[in-house]
Amino acid sequence: MTRYRPSSYGRRKSSYRRSSHGSISMSLLCGLVGYVLGVKYPDGFYKVQNKLSHVEGFSGVKKFLPSAPNTSSQPRQEIERRDISIEKSNIEEKRNFVPSKSVSIDKNSFQVRFSPNGGCLNFAKSFIDNAQNYILVQGYSFTSELLAKALVEAHRRGVKVAILLDKSQPTAVGAQIYFVKNAGIPVSIDYVSGIAHNKIMIIDDKIVLTGSFNWTLNAETRNAENLLMINNADIAKIYKDNWLFRANKAIKFLESNRASYDKNERFYKKGKIKASPAEYSME
Fold first, then answer.
1. Is 145 within 8 Å of 218 (Cβ atoms)?
2. Could you tell me the residue range of the domain that residue 198 belongs to?
3. Residue of 160, 197, 206, 252 marked active site
């Protein structure tokens, strides 16, 4: 005797089969993607996997995903290669800095100025005007005509002047890089992965000007900044050593105008033009 079945039964059964096949296919696809991600990005992937474990339906897919690796079973050579790579990275990081030093100095060796409108530009200019042997400049932003002209005048009276600037300066509005370069002052670009954020002048083996104060008119008239003068030979030597260290890694700036720089910008970015260390000998 044939049992009666509603006509919809066949459709439900067919739909169930398609649904089952679709779920299996989706599980296999998720498992494949999960396996690839688990191999390439194990740490991040397993964190995501754990967070999804409570989601309805995830348990059916989870059986296709790779289990978290046991790092203790990783080949020793692989672990050693990773450790060596980290060590090399740390060594390379240390090579980019002059070691820090501590120096005891007399409290009367300091002077400080603040802005806005604290006379910082004229304060810095007074030390440039009295320089006898050399002036080393580091700057992130250098747009002050007052200081640029004072440095050129010092250069013309026989004071050795050299400048290190951030990579933004060749294209910065109002930058004095071309003015001082065309006056004969050697200029280099201090290329780092971030920015060359130093604001420093070292003068005659004894004077250091430093602080948050950029060599700009905005720093004088609009910003809240500080400028510290340190009169100490030991500290000046530390700053000078770091300046020379950065200069020997910098790229010599050769362009006389913006159009020339735009044409050759790729050479600077690729580090094809290097500054000569001998050029910055201040002896």
1. no
2. 109-276
3. 197
